[in-house]
Write a structure and sequence with these properties.
Length: 219
């Protein structure tokens, strides 16, 4: 039994917990040792102690009453450093992904993943290896980019800052229009406004400006 990965499931839906527990208990590599209906309950269970010992991994829902997954992750890790937490959720909002990762979660996995992908994520978390699908990784990138543009006080609108960062990444007007779901004409308007506000003459100068300001990863 000692070689099994011990898992705690935290989700406010009874049927979800039951389904996850049933599936994981069918896998010889896992043992579900505890459950909780929200983050606050999870912290309380851990504080009281579990007969089988502390879990190796907590499979944590994100959107829960009383204390959500991001809050619970931060609280658990403050009391039990080194605990591995995997966020399992239906939500892929950019800011939520950033919150979950910043709180200390090892991985962020959508509930739409296959059983094999979930097992892979749990095994990866056990080894301390972050696992994120392409969609989640993209959401994290977008969320961090949004945090970057919101932190600037240059007088640009948030959309203009997004356009500027994409210009700095070498994206064409067509690429920017597709990524931001706006028309090419709108992109051109944003570029013109950026040139005026930054007092620059062309896209190359805009890209250099963004790098010099430290708004682009790796600059």
């Amino acid at each position: 039994m000692s070689d099994k990965i011990k898992v705690m499931i935290v989700d406010d839906h009874d049927m979800v917990r039951m389904g996850l527990k049933t599936y994981l208990m069918l896998d010889p590599g896992f043992e579900v040792i505890a459950e909780a209906a929200n983050g606050q309950d999870a912290v309380a269970v851990l504080e009281r102690g579990i007969p089988q010992g502390q879990p190796d991994i907590i499979l944590m829902d994100l959107m829960m009453p009383v204390m959500n997954g991001a809050e619970a992750t931060k609280e658990v890790l403050s009391r039990f450093p080194g605990m591995k937490i995997v966020i399992l959720t239906s939500f892929l909002e950019d800011d939520l992904v950033v919150q979950a990762v910043e709180s200390g979660a090892v991985s962020y996995v959508l509930k739409t993943v296959s059983a094999e992908e979930l097992i892979y994520a749990l095994q990866g978390a056990y080894r301390g290896m972050p696992v994120m699908t392409g969609d989640v990784a993209q959401a994290l990138t977008r969320g961090l980019r949004q945090r970057s543009v919101q932190g600037d006080d240059s007088g640009m609108t948030e959309r203009e800052k997004e356009v500027l960062l994409l210009i700095a990444e070498g994206k064409s007007n067509k690429d920017i229009a597709e990524e931001l779901h706006i028309s090419i004409k709108t992109v051109k308007t944003h570029v013109s406004n950026l040139l005026m506000k930054c007092e620059l003459e062309d896209r190359t100068q805009l890209a250099i400006h963004a790098h010099r300001q430290g708004w682009v990863s790796g600059s």
